[in-house]
Amino acid sequence: MTAPTNIFIEAHMFDHGFEGSGSFIAGLYRALLAAHPDRYALVVGGLHPERALAALGNPEQARAAPYRTDNRIARLAVDIPRIMREERIDFAHFQYFTPIVKQCAWIVTIHDVLFNDFPEFFPKNYRRMRNILFPLSARRADILTTVSRYSRDRIAHWYGIDPSRIAITPNGVEPADTAAGQAVAAGRPDGRYLICVSRFEPRKNQAAVLEAFVAQQLWERGISLVFVGARTLQSPAFDAAWAQAPEAARAAVRFLSGLSSQDLAALIAGAEVAVYPSLAEGFGLPPLEAIAQGVPCACAKVTAMADFDFLEPFFFDPAQPDALGQVIARMLDAPQQARAQAAAARTRMLEEYAWARAAETLHRKIDAHLRSRR
């Protein structure tokens, strides 16, 4: 029997909560092992690798490789090279950042380079460091992937890489648990509510959601607004909108973060309408997660989200001041029609954005690389 291909997964992102890059790793490798259970063995690196293993479903084909430090430089320079030697790794999968020393074939995923297209949303030092390290990682990769056509084209543009070198392994969405809509999530308000799921930073544009909520005076209709996400960067526009909002409107707004995946799913499922107003994304998973629950989602038609053509009934132009409020009002005023449109979008979305498709793309790339070395 042929020995399985050993893939090391750099999974430090699971050490500090659950974020988009963790969702990507969990969904991609669950699907890869489901499709090829005897072909791959995973070695999962992290300070708390058991968290990543749990997200993967604790498969028998995966084992933990604990780090000894939480320092990024030491992790890349010491911990990972040690694991490479001890575990006889065939491929190592990194997101964005890679070690100096290359000991095996590399799979590198760069989700986006938004800091180049939208520099106003990112600190100067943030941009400078990534524009040194990201192209190095990309050019040294044996398999280079990203999550959308938009990101592929922008990576190719900024770093002078042939687009054909960049494989698209998009995020997937799994069919929602039908029980989620009946569960009561922590922090769920009574009655009807809108939900906006995204960490707080200027490009996420939560200010537009609050302004639309206030302009429509939705609290007077008994509708609440729920923001889910940590504040990772200062958001002056949101703070200004909050300061100007009437006290009654602010009383109808909730801020939540650190929810379990189960509570988040239940919270989304219970919403009347979801809103995703982001001005720039390399993919944009929250609107797909809402549609998976059958919840209509107002979505900005920009950057990678413009590819979600099944969301056409729910798109709006964030450059138009009243556009978001009009879409929200239309969905609230005709909820049955909005739900029917969401159901139709859900069918198409689950066909186009399945983890199995991304996993098969990665599998083919690995196979091609192994054949090229024979």
Would you spell out the secondary-structure blueprint of this structure?
Layout: E1 5-10, H1 20-35, E2 40-46, H2 49-55, E3 62-66, H3 72-87, E4 91-95, E5 105-109, H4 114-117, H5 124-140, E6 143-146, H6 149-159, E7 166-168, E8 192-197, H7 206-215, E9 223-228, H8 236-244, H9 247-251, E10 253-256, H10 261-269, E11 273-276, H11 286-292, E12 297-300, E13 315-316, H12 323-333, H13 335-352, H14 355-372
Parallel strand pairs: 1-2, 1-4, 2-3, 4-5, 5-6, 6-7, 8-9, 8-11, 9-10, 11-12, 12-13
Helix pairs in contact: 1-14, 7-8, 12-13
Domain Glycosyl transferase family: 190-347
Domain Glycosyltransferase subfamily 4-like N-terminal: 49-175
GO molecular function, one term: glycosyltransferase activity
Would you summarize the structure shown here?
It holds the Pfam family Glyco_transf_4. The protein has 374 residues and is an alpha/beta fold. The protein has helices at 20-35, 49-55, 72-87, 114-117, 124-140, 149-159, 206-215, 236-244, 247-251, 261-269, 286-292, 323-333, 335-352, 355-372, and strands at 5-10, 40-46, 62-66, 91-95, 105-109, 143-146, 166-168, 192-197, 223-228, 253-256, 273-276, 297-300, 315-316.
